[in-house]
Batch of 4 targets.
Target 1
Amino acid sequence: MQTPGPNQPDLPAIPTKRYFTIGEVSVLCDVKAHVLRYWEQEFEQINPVKRNNRRYYQQQDVLLIRQIKSLLHEQGYTISGAKQWFGSQQGNDENLRYKQLLRQTISGLEDILKTLKSSR
């Protein structure tokens, strides 16, 4: 089985924020808000913080949603197939999301460094 790529070039970089609203995640993952709410019901791994009837996603949630999107839209998995993929993957590599988060953070820092160097 393939592992969804952490750097999907058509998606914007994930900003270094602690929490994201559903609208921000929708843009970052190129998925409509109602789809995010549906995936939340289907995938127990997506667990946004809920306060005052609002959802707040963290960076690992955004990475997970991008991974789900890749499985469903690019690799042709069904929802039940994607659930099985996560079930087997989490047992084998629980650090996958954190590795992707680190890669994304490094990429963001490299972008900042390029901007700083070009402004000199």
Target 2
Amino acid sequence: MASPALHYPPELLLRAQGIRVAFFDVDGVLTDGGLYISAEGETLKRFHTLDGHGLKLLARAGIVPCVISGRDSAPLRLRLQALGVQHLRLGTEDKRPAAEALLAELGLDWSQAAAMGDDWPDLPVMQRAAFACAPPQAHAEVLAVAHHVTQAAAGAGAGREFCDLLLVAGGHYRRLLEEVLA
């Protein structure tokens, strides 16, 4: 097989090595941040399949995907269930204690954590994680702490880009790609 098409700077890969858990915000990271609210008050969200497959690949590589969101909705729960995401905290604006509880549950610590967020509520998790990532339209304070800003926009593959980077840094990417091509 030819070499994988993805390449990242060595210093970025070094920073992202040893990651065992990845925290994701939802609105503005796994979605474009827009909220569609029906006349009945139902909130609809648009998810990208690239991001969903990235979460599945992380799990296959032994990197636990965790979702921490300020919102809780039936569409979000359905999507996460379909993706097999088992570790989540929904409806919480105080994300640091939620992340710490998940780390304790998994027997991991901040040095093994990566986080992707887009706004102030995500900062406490991103600042403590060994590796922080943000989509390009994230708030300036979030962009300032991110070790990597994705090329792809939120809800349009940014989450997958984060997943791919973690998979390359952890040495899992080539094996997973070869499994698909076998």
Target 3
Amino acid sequence: MDETANTANPVISKLEEKDVSSAVAVAGHPLHAMSVHFPIALVFITLAIDLLYWWSGDPFWLRAGLWSAGGAFFSGMAAGAVGTVELLSVAGIRERVASWAHAIAAMMLIALAGLNWGLRVTNAAEILPHGLLVSILAAVMTGMAGWHGGKLIFDHGIGLMVTSKD
């Protein structure tokens, strides 16, 4: 959408006036943007571990998958908590539909990460095929949540700390 269309629409121009800077930051660095890297990496590592277990059958990968899935779930919970505070405390973020799409996709991802970890805690020997399928679904959902999060940052400037030095 070009700039002239945005200025002609009073709803969009009113929305663009609202502050979208991060409310939860340390030394100007938004915590949500910093914390999402860990669950994203661990979701994909869990998928790789499941594929290695399928290929090798080595029980070591069952233990590694348990820790990786647990790390993805608990770090995802922490990142989700910070993201929820951002969503609810900053009006410019809260009023954008794209923010809610990202939040819903992220909540679904956290639920899948919890399911993946729960499968491994309760019955690690049955990772194939269910754990592998949940890992694949979690990786796809990670892509969806990440896509929406990236759109918020790069297209809408959400959560950025822009100073006069920039």
Target 4
Amino acid sequence: MKLFYEDVNLQTFQAKKTGEGTDKQGRRYVVLDQTAFYPTGGGQPHDTGLLNQAHVYDVEEVDGAVRHYIEGTDPLLEIVHGEVNWNRRFDHMQQHAGQHILSAAFENNFDLKTVW
């Protein structure tokens, strides 16, 4: 479950580990039954934070599963406590909202569309 769609202000959560692995680049990841960590996409960068004491440095959605890329080799418990780096999340939310406001102003006032 993607908790970030339910509550964008959610900063902590509990989840059950449902999978783990290593990707082609050798990066270790964990998949949870629910998460408040936003993966890269939709014009916003991924969240960072902690799963128990493991640092989450990247989050991606791969084949419908949200992968939490973590540092270290210590195994995570079956039930994990997640904590989103709120300062980073809030900064990205503000920048993203600001971009939408600017894009609307440019389109409405000057007929200029935002393109990537």
